[in-house]
Amino acid sequence: MAHKNQTLLNREDMILLLKSIDSRLNSSATIVICGAAAGILAHNWERPTVDIDVLGSKPTVSEMSGILKQVAKDQRLGEDFVNDGPKGFSRYLTEDFKSRLLEIKGDFKNLNVYCLSKADLFVMKLASFRQQDLEDLSRMDLNINEREIVARSIDKISTFDPKTSMRMQYFLEEKNNERSCNPEMEKGRDCIPGPSGGRER
């Protein structure tokens, strides 16, 4: 979700915003960040973003709305600069995704900040499948373990959203075909997983 003035946020900007939220908390809180914000905070993406997408939090984003509005006003951002719009995508991840969360250190006192692992972020981007998601996917290389996580996620998705599962499998199959036709792309890099039934074990 974009906010007014479309302010672009880099990693330093987001850490400062999270510290501003932290300074207003009177008790412990936890947020799990996804989307481009997770890529920037945890996976060295260089592109900016306009908001911080949250997969889940405790207290909820709604329950923290008072604090978020204060920070938004102080920083001249839209009130939805932190939002939980993607929370429904949690069901697209395997049940053990929380064990792969990456903690973000920022000298926070009350705020615990976590980001999705690269494999789980890949799954969410692939399921969303917008143009920006496709651009983000192009910069994400996965190792063998991460490829297996993606494959397990696709298997799970096929049980409740077969259309999305098939689209994800088709995209990965096409990506593998592209790499097979261009050996230079393979040097020093792991392949992205193929569809169920055709992936490496």
Question: How is this structure best summarized?
Answer:
With 201 residues, this protein is an alpha/beta fold.
Instruction: Please give the largest β-sheet.
Output: 5 strands, mixed
Number of helices: 7
Shape: elongated
Terminal CA distance: 38 Å
Strand order of the largest sheet: 3-2-1-5-4
The radius of gyration is: 18 Å
Q: Give the mean pLDDT.
A: 89
The counted number of beta strands is 5
Strand content: 5-15%
Helix content: 40-55%
Taken together, the total number of domains comes to 2
SSE pattern, N- to C-terminal: HEHEHEEEHHHH
- Give the helix/strand class: alpha/beta
Ranges with pLDDT <50 over ≥5 residues? 185-201
Describe the overall structure.
The protein has 201 residues and is of the alpha/beta class. It folds into 2 domains: 4-117, no CATH class; 122-186, no CATH class. Helix content is 42%, strand content 11%. The protein is built from 7 helices and 5 strands. The chain has helices at residues 11-24, 35-42, 65-75, 118-128, 131-137, 144-157, 162-180; strands at 29-34, 52-58, 82-83, 102-103, 111-115. It has a 5-stranded mixed beta sheet. β2, α3 and β3 (82-83) form a beta-alpha-beta unit.
